[in-house]
Amino acid sequence: MIETRNPRTGQIDYRFQPADAAAVARSCAELRERQPAWWSAGIEHRVATLRAWKREIEARQSAIEAALTADTGRRRISQEEIGAVLHFIDGYAAVAPKLLGPITGRSSAAADVGYEQQYVPYPVVGVISPWNFPLVLSFFDTIPALLAGCAALVKPSEVTPRFVEPLRESIAAVPDLAAILSVIQGDATTGATLVSNVDAVVFTGSIATGQKVGIEAARNFIPAFLELGGKDPAIVLASADLERAATSILRSSVYNTGQVCYAIERVYVDEQVADRFTDILARQAQTLDLSHPDMDRGHLGPFIFARQAEILHEQLRDATEKGARIVTGGDIEEHGGGLWMRATVLSDVDHTMKVMTEETFGPVVPVMKFRSEDEAVRLANDTIYGLSGAVFAGTVDEATRVARRIDAGGVSVNDADLPRAVTFDAEKMAFRKSGMGGSRYGAASMLRYVRKKAIISNEGAIRGLDSLAELGT
Ligand code: NAD
């Protein structure tokens, strides 16, 4: 049995039996057997089935919300997670028929030759997800895979397993979906077993585990789509609206208590305005409250994963020992058995400190001064990560010029966290060690799950055997 800690109380209040190797293998074999019927039923059937699932999720919204809230210690973001999954179903269902529709064409080299481009889905896609957005990150990549015609086996994190039971009920209520979508509970061992049984794997989590998954996938000769950690920079130029920049950056840094891969985790500000910006940021940070004791009030929930508090404590100790100043916040607090931290602003930081180079995953905003635009870009790009970032300036043009120089897959201009607004439109890959294997946004979100096959036909005369002799001369 695996025991699970409740983030608000610190108590073990949930236990589950992880799926063993035989169960994972059996599940994959069943999914693989049923997937051809799912694919051949066509895109309209798949869209209708997912829309039916949407209604079943809506019917069980309160049970899913309660379990997800117990998993994560925060209610409002759990509601947002459910809303996001419903939004994914609508959004991907709207674009899928056009993206996956039949494609035919004529050869540009031979007049009588035509071709049909067929998209052949990977039979079973394995999805492994982390604990920070347990529901969203279990289905963000799964919904496009199902629409592409794949079956899917999903394994959420062992840190947040409670939502699986009510969610399974919503799947069971749609038999055509239950035939090709399974959600299992398990830990690292279950995840590793899953990688050896599926035909493609999507992994969201840490770089260290992502590397293991990538190596195992290579051994099994299957594609791995890896969505890993981030250390997103924000650059604030002297011309920026400082109130606006501070609000956007703070909102991004502390959302979900900073337990977000694309949180702004380091800020570079023009030295002419840095002190003023830091004052504004600290003033805004001090207006934010913990959502304790009342979960429905306040802005910041508890740490979902207790070890996260230790990581933060160590980063802040390292930073202050090397000369950083805590402007506001900075303490790990214990309330009701949960671990909490207020919005924290640091100044006098540099790149010798872990808080500027390692993923923090907490509500911490370190602010560093720069002297020139080139220096700001160099500092922003001085990282192993490349998930996303943000640039603030007086005009969109000025900020965009700098954004083009940031080595990351998505850069927001005059706001933070904008990629979510273009989920179904623009493509956005994870650069450097933040990921591998193509965009989970835009058309690639679906097309990465299919193998492209060409069926080529000759409607005219064939070349005779004489052509062999001609070729030989
Ligand atoms: P983690 O890497 O510890 O675990 C993620 C998942 O992998 C869990 O389900 C776990 O059981 C499973 N797992 C562990 N070992 C495995 C193995 N050897 N083989 C297969 N599966 C295995 O990550 P976490 O602590 O749950 O999540 C936090 C991390 O996730 C952070 O680094 C964060 O930045 C990252 N993250 C990235 C994104 C993104 O979209 N890029 C989104 C959210 C979180």
Task: Outline the structure in words.
It is built from 18 helices and 20 strands. The chain has 473 residues and is an alpha/beta fold. It has 2 domains: 255 residues, 3-Layer(aba) Sandwich (Aldehyde Dehydrogenase, Chain A, domain 1), CATH 3.40.605; 191 residues, Aldehyde Dehydrogenase, Chain A, domain 2, CATH 3.40.309. The strands form 5 sheets. The chain has a 7-stranded mixed beta sheet with strand order 12-15-16-11-10-17-18. Strands 7-6-5-8-9-19 form a 6-stranded mixed beta sheet, with helices on both faces. Helix 11 links the parallel strand 10 and strand 11. The protein is globular, with a radius of gyration of 25 Å. The protein starts with a strand and ends with a helix. The mean pLDDT is 97. The chain binds nicotinamide-adenine-dinucleotide.
